[in-house]
Amino acid sequence: MTYIAKPKFHHPGLKKNELGYTHRDYEGKISTLCAGCGHDSITASIIEACYELSIEPHRVAKISGIGCSSKTPDYFLGNSHGFNSVHGRMPSVLTGANLANRDLIYLGVSGDGDSASIGFGQFAHSIRRGVNMTYIVENNGVYGLTKGQFSATADRGSKSKKGVTNTDNAIDLVAIALQLGATFVARSFSGDKTQLVPLIAAAIRHKGASFIDVISPCIAFNNHAGSTKSFDYVREHNDAVNRLDVLVGRDPIAVDYAPGTVQVVEQHDGSKIALRKIDADYDPHDRLGAQTFLAKHAAKGQIVTGLLYVDPDAEDLHAHLNTVETPLNTLEADTLCPGSAVLDKINASLR
Amino acid sequence: MPDKKPISSVNDFVVRFANVNGSGSASANEMFARAILRHGVPVSPRNIFPSNIQGLPTWYEVRVTEAGHLGARGGIDMMVAMNPQTWDKDVAGIEPGGYLFYDSTKPMPSTKFRDDITVIGVPLTAITNSTYTDPRQRQLFKNIIYLGALSALLEMDPKVIEQLIGEQYRGKEKLLSSNVHALHLGRDWALQNLKCPIGLRVKKSDKVGDRIFIEGNSAAALGAVYGGATVCAWYPITPSSSVAEAFTAHCKKYRHDPETGKAKYAIVQGEDELASIGIVIGASWNGARAFTATSGPGISLMTEFIGLSYFAEIPAVIMNIQRAGPSTGMPTRTQQCDIIACAYASHGDTKHVLLFPEDPAEAFEFAAAAFDLAERLQTTIFLMLDLDIGMNHRLCRPLKWDDSRQYDRGKVMTAEMLEEGRDFGRYLDVDGDGIPYRTYPGTHPTKGSYFTRGTSRDRYARYSEEGSVYADNMQRLVRKFETAQDLVPRPLQANAERPTKYGVIYFGSTSPAMDEAIGLLEARGHQLDRLRIRAFPFHSSVASFLAEHDFVYVVEQNRDSQLRQLIVNENGIDPVRLVPIVHYDGTPITARFIAKAIGDHQDHLKVTPLRKAVS
């Protein structure tokens, strides 16, 4: 949130996507987060992903809770409607918005304080309901806005800036999302845009509950020795299971990697995720395998990143509720109201 | 013979059934009420039940009232005492000259009876045991057997009850015939062994007219269907759960696309009340009509979101079916105790619109209107029912709908309006009524988008912590609330036959008891003008009514006279002129209670001061 809007002028030669939009059309206001904040890198990745997908910016609804991460929707897709709701309650607001109009793209942005503590319940229930959304947690393991308290994702034994050691166990949101039935689960690192951009793009294309946990170091309160969410620590302990590209239907599908190292996953809308395998035995279709893989690596102190699980045939909440294709917010009295003749019959049945 | 003359009354008495929760008595007792209704005689039934599934005491009271008084009367003319645990209390509650109906299979000591009532024993257990072998059948048919015996004692037409049984078990011939058999088992035993009829009788009449018999919660849910609600998010809580359950049932019947079979609605049972109101706010923000139903504890949990709805100006409809608080209070007992909590819900300076329906018919009308109001005012609208209306069947006028009615979607700026070059500022007061325009997400590629937030912002929705900007916004919200005064249902005034300087204000489920109490007060020589408040903010006629009367009684069902507090607070009136009449034991307020409380106060006012008398 800022007083300062970004100037709209830009170089006329800026590259345009299929809709004729430039990167600038996907930007928002100037960030007021600390210089070097990992969240700003995630913002840049969201902008890049939306640009690459040629999404109409105004067809995205960006919804957040409260906190540093929840401020970021103001910094991308300036022509979209945004909603900075209340602490931890983004998922319910997003669920309602999605029920009202199934035709928009829903981007939920949250933080570890927002989603792993006060909003842990709402996080869990929106995932298990299969709300068609891209749910991004910008995870820095700390409460930045209130100056440095541990969040529920801070690892046991990690240290705060003040030198306090965390004695509580950490909540691994990725493990929880897998357990809850999320149909697209990934983890990434704000400092790894190459991995993060296609992950966000694939998540947006996925029809169902997509969850991405992005380790995003807090430059002010959690980027020191002893922190397990610092830039250095994550770089040293990152174990990527795959790299991916997203190929939307309108482009010719060309996978030019060596046979045996690429797996193509076709999603509901025809878009394809090309997975360049790094861990040769990693299967992103195996939920149970992903859970075991995560647990084993966590025990070794490794942070597994990449696309961990995807169900390309997932159904969303609207499918579960069997709702009409027409957005509910466009229905009027002529289709919603049973009318006076029906009411007369109801009256007659109540005597 | 009892030492008090037995009560003799046709079509004007109260029967109370004392049962054990889970014994299957509810349908038999309700059938008793409906049977009297089918005789053309108005009834006013009330469930009095515990916060429990099985084992605890439950009562069902049927007021038979040819005069059409639909409030609780107080006092019991006939007790059907089927619960040994509450025997002493039940017997003690019978009016002198009244009747006690009981299962006489096992002999009872004479000390368990009273001399001033008529005792009617029917060996229900013996009859059922000799007829049925299955324990559950014995239990269930015992209820129908006592219904049969009562039909003989009260001179009811058995064909009417047979018809009701036929409707209830349509298509289930075996159940139908066995229930009819049980009915006649009890009826025949009574006719052969008892003096029938007793002093209380049901005589066919024509006082019901075209009125319908419906629970308030069901009517409110139907109002939501007619009012165009497409999203319902809720969390189970007594006494509101049946709103969402009824909405689900109505939608299944009336809201499926005939060609595809797909639903034109979405219902989500939230994980809690916070999620439920969050879903409502998200859906409303995105242009759908959405609501939740809850009770006092749910309101407490929702208050943060309610504040967001007020400040960020997002429509929401909350149906609050009030019960006795605070905390868990008495979950299955009625009160009107959330007035202040809802009027000023959330932190900071907030004010919310409250609607007070008096019966199911108004619950239907106000529920439908709530969605228009929510979108017109872009704020939370509370439909304030209570358990007494919500969970009891009430006779009320038929529900009505005007087919030409269109939904008022409020001030929504469309893509076309934006293209025309209309200035869009999300919080701009362009019409001077305090209500700004909004846009739905996805409206236009380059115009009309804005950021919704609970933090302060300027007229163009730009974040701002400038004091003057904040104050400007808060003042506009006050203007909007003033606009609401003329949009909400107005109070209804009824004047006494003779001019009087005394008035009475009441609302919601107090209404039928108040109507009856006026007659009782007139009989005591007291004249009062009446004002039934139907909404907050208060229309200007409330202030006028207060100005026109020296003393105004405010009758309500809570301890602290919350509506009175709200009137004093909002109208700046001297509290001394507003006399609280409060009833808050969890039972519905009665005409007798109101008439006595106001009557005694009026009598006191008429006492001539001693100094004046001797001077």
TrEMBL record, chain A:
Tagged with keyword Zinc: no
Keyword field: Oxidoreductase
PANTHER family in the record: 2-OXOGLUTARATE OXIDOREDUCTASE SUBUNIT KORB-RELATED, BLR6744 PROTEIN
Segments forming domain Thiamine pyrophosphate enzyme TPP-binding: 66-214
Claim: Iron is one of the keywords in the record: no
GO biological process, one term: cellular respiration
Name of the protein in its database record: 2-oxoacid:ferredoxin oxidoreductase subunit beta
Gene3D superfamilies, per database record: 3.40.50.970
Lineage, broadest ranks: Bacteria, Pseudomonadati, Pseudomonadota, Alphaproteobacteria, Hyphomicrobiales
MF GO annotations: oxidoreductase activity, acting on the aldehyde or oxo group of donors, iron-sulfur protein as acceptor; thiamine pyrophosphate binding
SUPFAM superfamilies assigned to the protein according to its UniProt record, in alphabetical order: Thiamin diphosphate-binding fold (THDP-binding)
Automatic annotation (TrEMBL), chain B:
InterPro entries referenced in this protein's UniProt entry, alphabetically: 2-oxoacid/accept_OxRdtase_asu, Pyruvate:ferred/Flavod_OxRd, Pyrv/ketoisovalerate_OxRed_cat, Pyrv_Fd/Flavodoxin_OxRdtase_N, Pyrv_flavodox_OxRed_cen, THDP-binding, Transketo_C/PFOR_II
Signal peptide (residue range): none
Pyruvate/ketoisovalerate oxidoreductase catalytic domain ranges (all copies): 22-187
Keywords: Oxidoreductase
Domain Pyruvate flavodoxin/ferredoxin oxidoreductase pyrimidine binding: 223-387
GO molecular function: oxidoreductase activity, acting on the aldehyde or oxo group of donors
GO biological process: response to oxidative stress
NCBIfam families found in the cross-reference section: OAFO_sf
Protein's UniProt name: Ferredoxin oxidoreductase
Organism: Bradyrhizobium guangdongense
